[in-house]
Design goal:
By secondary structure, this protein is an alpha/beta fold. It is globular.
Amino acid sequence: MMRMNILRCLALAGCVGVLPALAADKNWQPVPGPLQTRWAKDVSPTKVWPEYPRPQMVRKEWMNLNGLWDYAIVATNAPAPHSYEGQILVPFPVESSLSGVGRRLDEFHDLFYRRTVKIPRGWKGERVLLHFGAVDWETEVFVNGSPVGTHRGGYDPFSFDITGALKSGRTQEIVVKVFDPTEGGQPHGKQVRKPRGIMYTSSSGIWQTAWLEPVPQTSIAELAITPDVDSGVVRIFTPSGQQDATVEAVALANGQEVGRDSGPLGGELKIPVPNPTLWSPEHPFLYDLKVELRQGKKRVDAVTSYFAMRQLGLEKDDKGITRPTLNGKPMFLLGPLDQGFWPDGLYTAPTEAAMRYDLEMTKKLGFNMTRKHVKVEPELWYYECDRLGLMVFQDMPAGDNKTAAQKEEFEHELKQMILTHYNHPCIVLWVIFNEGWGQYDTERLTSMVKEMDPWRGVDDATGWTDKKVGDVIDMHKYPGPASPQPEETRAAVLGEFGGLGLGLDGHTWAKKSWGYQGMTDRKALTDRYVDLLTKTLELKASPGLSAAVYTQITDVETECNGLMTYDREIVKPDLDAVSTANRKLWEDNK
C-alpha cells in the first residue's frame, strides 16, 4: 500500500510533485474513430496521465509535461516551423483519436512539437533533466533554440540534461522533432502505415509521459537491483560518480527495516534480507527500498524504489522433464498474448486505470503470466505486473534487420530494453525473435542476452524458427494445442495457440473481423476454450509442456480473437469457466 499511495500522491498537484499550468483549449476534442473505450471520457487537456512515471526510482520533485503541445507536420529535414497547425494532446500518438489530430506520419515528413514551461524558483542551483518515457522513433530536442540531444529508439526511456540551455527568467521553450518512417527497417513491432490482418495502425511521436526533474549536481543516475535468494541478500549497483560520494541503501518490509548497506558510488551494495518473503503469483510481496547519496555527512540525493526476492531456474521434475522453476518449485506458466493496442489511444492506454484494467482482468481470468507481444510498455505497466504477481514473457519489438545499420539498431534497442527493465521481478523470459521476423545471428544474440541477464530465461525464437539455443523450445499452433518435445536443457513452450474468433456487434473496429477459428456465439466460445485448456493440461503431463500463450487477451482492430472486445466492454466467454480451466494448469504443479 505504501508504494501505491506514494505514486498516487505524486500524481496530484500540491502534493510533492509539481504540475505546470496546462493550456486548456475548449476546441480540443478526440478525433472521431471507429471505436472508443469508456476511459476516453476521463481524458482532457488538464487531466492526462498525471501519475508519476518512474516507480522504481522515485524523487519527490518533478513536473509533468503531458497535455496540449503545439504541433506541425512538415517535409523531412525542413527547418522548425515558424507557425504551428494546431494542438496535440501528449502523450497520445499523432495517429490516434485521443491525440486530437488523427493523422498518419510517413517517411517524407517530420512531426514537430512545441510548448513553453516555467521552471519553479525552488529548482535554482539544480540540474534540470528532460525525460521522455518513449518517443517513436528518432527524436531531436531543442530548448530555447539550442539543441540538447538526439535519440533513436521507439520503446526505451531517455533523458537530456537541459540546464545549460535554460535562459534567465522562468519561461522556457521546448521543441521536439520526430522522424518515424514506421516501416523504415527499425524495430516497430506490428505497426504499419497501411493496417491489415495481423498488422495495425502506427503510433508515431511522443507516446509515453514527458516530464522535467531537478537533480543535484551529483545524483543517483540509476539502480540495478538483483535479488540473490541463495545468499539471502539483494544486490544494488549504482553507476560511478564522484569519488567522495557514498551510497546508503535500506530495505524495508511493511515499513520495518530488514537490512542496510553502504559503499562508494559506483560499487555494489549487498543488503541482507534474512528469511525473505518470496515473490510469486499467489503472494507478490514487494520490499521497499530507500537509497541516499551522501558527500561527507551531507545528504545530497535520495530516491525510493522497491524489489522482490524471487528465484528463477530450469530443473528436471520428478519424472525427468525439464521445467521452469520459481523459487525452486516447478511452475507452469499460462497467459494470453497481450498486444497493448487501444482503439482510441493506439499504443497509449487512455488512462492508467484503463491500462491496469487489462492486467487485473488477466488475473481474474485465471492466468499467472502474460506475453507482451513485440511491444514495450510504460514503466507503470510493469509496476502493476510486479504488484499483481503477473509474470511476463517480454518480446523484443520486431524489425526488418536486412541491412547492417538495421541490425545495429535492433541490437542497440534490444540491449536498452533489457537494461531499462532489468529490475522488474515480473519479467521472467526475454523473447528475441517472433516467428522468424527479421531473424539473424540467433545464437550470438541469445548468448549476448544471457550474458547481460543470467538471472532470467531467454527464448531465441518463438514460433517455428528455433536455432536450438536458449532456455526453451517454442512452437505455435492454431488453434492447437500442441507441444514440442522437452529437451535436456530446454523446457517446452507453446508460444501461441487458440485464436478463437467472435466479433460482437457494436464492439468491433470494423464491420468485418476475423479469427483463426470462428465461433458462433459466447457459449460456443466458452466450451471450445475449456476444451482447448483440457487438452493443454494433457500436454503438460505428456510430453511435458511447461508454458502456453493463448491468442489473445483483447480484440485488436480487425482481429476478433480476444477474450475481451477491443473496447474492453465485454468479456466474451464465461469468466468463471475460463478461470477454472486456467487455474487447473498452474495451481497444481505436481
